[in-house]
Amino acid sequence: MPFWAQVREIARKDLVIEIRTAEVLLMTVPFAAAALVLIPFAIGTDAPLLAELGPGLFWIVVLLFGVLVILRKSAVDEGPQQDLVRLLGIDPAARFTGSTVATSLLVLLFEVALLPILIALYNPDLGGWWWMAAVLPLVAAGLGLLGSLTGGVTASLGTRTSLTPLLIVPLALPLLVGATQAVESLQLGRSILPWLVLLAAVDLALAVSGVLAARPLEEVTT
Amino acid sequence: MTQPKARWLEITAIVVVIAAVVRGLTVEADVTQGDVQRIMYVHVPAAWLAFLAFGVTVVGSVAWLRTRRRTWDRLAAASAEIGVVFTGLAILAGMIWARPVWGQFWTWEPRLVTTALLFFVYLGYLALRRAVLDPEQRARRAAIMGIVAFIQIPIVYQSVNWWRSLHQTSSRNSIDGPLRLTLWLAVLAFTFAYAVMLSRRLELARLEDELEQARLAGTPDVAGAAITAPTLEGVTRG
Amino acid sequence: MNAKTLVTLDDVGLSIGGSVILTSAKLTVAAGEKVGLLGPNGSGKTTLLRVLATLLRPTSGTGAVLGAELGTDEIYAVRPDIVLVGHLPGLYPELTLGENLRFVARLTGRDPRRADEALAAVGLAAAADRRARDSSKGMLRRTELARALIQEPRLLLLDEAHAGLDADAIGLVDAITGRVVAADGAALLVSHEPDRLEVDRSLRLVDGSVEEA
To answer: Do C148 and C83 contact (CB within 8 A), yes or no?
Structure first.
């Protein structure tokens, strides 16, 4: 079976399972939205301040709560399912890519769902908003890739849910920097391009690492 | 028993460390900062070692993936353990230094931020190792994580650098003359200390492995031995 | 290696996380053989099946499965010819039985319609749209047997071959293993009920090594 057909099968399987459990849409999105409601109680409800901090808060919420999208149930194959997929003879790189595509799409959905809530609550400057069409997918892909890599390393470990965030968050800094500075550059009227290049470079480095690590990762079972 | 070679390494390390301490405390003080600047002789070498140690971990990881030899995994693990200590030391020394000089414990200087993140990466790496019982699985997962993290570190550094360029100009003060020489001596001393710790830790890890092997060889605890035929006779009635 | 030999293990040892599971397992299975595997609880039968399925690398010794040397990259080529039915179902709980099988069919390059045929063959035509999580243990087991019908493996490994199956389904196990064996494949069945095993010969796993029973 051709590589991309395998990728499509794996991604579709992950997404169908996600649609049935609705973990991201019905649990993670409301949780993150509630956080956006709570934050002003801690930092004050001063309108100009919220408008200024809003974009940064959005990205930090996407990064930290996005880890829950990465940890969702449909991202993990339990022991017997893992055996099944390994024995079906799927190219490990296709499996990595397929689950990354699914996770990235869900992170993108997560971002898109939170965006209107942020705009409504914080009223940020929306200048150059169409650039978000590039920034959101690049960040989603980066988180999806980091998620598949770290998720692969922590697969079937008892402490997976605590360990994975610890592994993801320090390495996600370039994504956070790229996203927040892209938005800030827009507001300052500077070029957004370097930050998009940064995001793309991070995605590329992670994608190459992931494809190369796929085979050794495939043998990770206990 | 310590081997003669290791003994010489240790003696050299002690001599160099003493020399560095004496030199660091007696060399003329910095003109602007005064005595507080001396903490640089701890901060900079510790940060250097943090990166060196992680580099060695990556070498061990790649070599393990290629050869599957336990020695390489032990090297990766030992270096990471020492690395986390030095990373912590670098951050702590940096904060103690920053307080009197900049009036605050922390600045968002790129190297500082990268070192701090490195600390968390190490912690995650060591936590991952702790979480896996099977040696082969532990080595495999840790090797992949070690390499992936290593590839990301320069990107992290560069991203903080760029981020900072948007906010403030980078302040890099240069040092020269006797101060520079002292710094180099300190770096040398720290590197020797690292080498000693690494060789000791590797020896310890090797002994741990041997002990484990001996334990396995000594007890014929093959699968199934834990289960015997059920008997209800020993169960008392209440 | 004999062309008709599908499985050989030579002094295979395996330890996981410090516990020794296999010490020196020796085993040969030829094409057309149906072999039973017996042994007390916890003796490592499941682990042995996973070694034969190429999912676990031996710690020591050598072995070959379907011509692929264990522990080398050769295993990737033969994996699709191996079906392992473990004691936990290799099915996605949130997918229906039909979807689970179509997933397998598509990934192994079979016509997805064979999934429905296979489900009908194991008597689950009416349950194709039922999610795996809402299905009984016996139904899941039958679905897994249907997977063997779709994949037509050369090596079929059944763990606890008769657990949770009714009389009809036990007949099904015999029929499906019979099909594999008739096509010059081999089947290995783990069971705790030697009397119900219809096999050519039986092996017993004791103290980490394999004996003829």
So the answer is: yes
